[in-house]
Amino acid sequence: MNRIPFIPENAPFTAEQRMWLNGFLAGVFSNANPPGASALASTLGLDAGPKTPLVVLYGSQTGTAEGLAKKTARVAEGRGFAPKLVSMEKFSDVDLTKEQNVLVITSTYGEGEPPDMAKGFWDWLKADTAPKLAHLRYSVLALGDTNYAEFCKFGQNCDERLAALGAKRVADRKDCDVDYETPAAEWTTSVFTALGNVSAHSGTNGANGSAATDTTSEGWSKKNPFPAKLITNRRLSAEGSGKDVRHFEISLAGSGLTYEVGDALGVFPVNCPQRIGEILAALGCDGEEAVKTADGETPLRLALTQHFDIMKPSAELLAAVAQRSPGADFAPLLDPARKDDLRKWLYGREIIDVLGGLTAPFTPAEFITLLKKLAPRLYSISSSLKAHADEVHLTIAAVRYESHGRSRNGVASTFLADRVNETTAVSVFVQPSHGFKPPVNGDTPMIMVGPGTGIAPFRAFLEERLATGAKGRNWLFFGDQKRATDFLYQEQLEGWVKDGHLTRLDLAFSRDQAEKIYVQSRMLEAAAELWSWLEAGAHFYVCGDASRMAKDVDAALHTVIESAGGKSSDEAKKYVERLKSEKRYQRDVY
């Protein structure tokens, strides 16, 4: 029950004033003690009672989990808790054996791994020496992407391990896909309802707001994207390349939007008309049927164009089709014991392939409820605002391939490459990066490993350093398939080498010789110098594919430290961990 402050009789107010103030304070504090109530009580010299400590522990790779953690802390403060926001890389700043309440908000990176900042925490938590936590109350919000097999795996691991150590789960874990706002809001409500009886200030009305519906931010955002103009669409890969890599320039003029190098740009795509036509034909619809969306009643064709993911089938759609068509090829694979078989069957298939086996079509209203929302895509920014005022540049490979007798294409990449023109707005927002930035000190050396489109943030880093006059040495490892067709930004990079801005450029074109050569191969060849740069304080960066390239580069880094640095395997591992803890080893991988 709330402990409501009151104006004592000896206070310097008239009886009428005291009655009004007491009524006002009672109203404020009965509303779950919203933000500002405690400050008001403090200003008036009143005692609003003790606050209950709460740790909000987060593991973030791109900044989404960190943003949610900050909002959750604000909600907690409004509920009368005393929140302490802690990143997993600084988990030792809190002693979980002495805490009573902890909320864990974390993403999963790659194939079920913890974010880079969370690896030390996970090593500690999963160790046999981890302490018992029977006194601890907790809940986990897991962020992930169902395009990956190990969806939300790290959050699940944290949840299971905390329970194994005796901690009490006060609210069920919530696993969120890229469209996380609604489930995150539900989790916030359930958590603070469960924790409500703990806090001296907790009311009975549930959480006063939610982490996912915070509306304090102003201007253009994910919830209110800016309608930008695409001013440049230039192909970077030459004729004969096996890829279609594009350089895009988007105008931010008039938006007031700013970004820092290392940030990402969120792009809301529009679905391909051809794919929409195929789905409408499979449903036997003309597209004019009215369906409900977040914008109200909308024609089905428009809803499929702007609001829903029409490519990747949801679990709900698969189950609904299997129920109507038990003979469908994938129906037996929905058994949880055969999830690996289902994943293999789905590889290279889309919603249209699933609808092909449907014997009883869905109504438009039914079909819409089985789709996921169309989510924005995040792309590493490849420019510096200091070099290109009011512009943001992207480096994107347009995804196109054949699979199971159909042509396939990436939703956002081909939207930008093929379907945006002078009259088409591109809805965008800036996604800040909290752990992928060039050194603050411009004299610090940088080593950058960015094959393919992984070069994007490093073009931005180099533009930024040139614009600011930074004197630190710069070393780039770049690779792709063929030098003649896939040397992205060749003229700009070679120009930087010539004028000394790019101290060293090591290239690895895998298909220009019989034996494939990759960026990690070049690292090993330059082991001695690479080691000397690290010892001189260089920061080491990696951008690109998480499943193969980033792992191979990490292994090569360990080998360089062992061979050139004369370290044992364990010593090399500790050296790399120190680089990470000092934020000298940063990755933007996907």
Please describe what this structure looks like.
Strand 3 (101-107), helix 4 (119-126) and strand 4 form a beta-alpha-beta unit. The protein is an alpha/beta fold and 590 residues long. The chain has 20 helices and 21 strands. Helix content is 34%, strand content 20%. It folds into four domains: 52-213, Flavodoxin domain (Rossmann fold); 226-269 and 376-431, Translation factors (Elongation Factor Tu (Ef-tu), domain 3), CATH 2.40.30; 273-369, NADPH-cytochrome p450 Reductase, Chain A, domain 3; 446-589, 3-Layer(aba) Sandwich (Rossmann fold), CATH 3.40.50. Mean pLDDT is 89; it is low at 30-34, 197-208 and 213-218. Strands 1, 2, 3, 4, 5 and 6 form a six-stranded parallel sheet that branches. The chain is globular, with a radius of gyration of 27 Å.
Main features:
20% strand; alpha/beta; six-stranded antiparallel β-sheet; Elongation Factor Tu (Ef-tu), domain 3; 590 residues; 34% helix; Rossmann fold; 4 domains; NADPH-cytochrome p450 Reductase, Chain A, domain 3; six-stranded parallel β-sheet; 20 helices; single chain; 21 strands
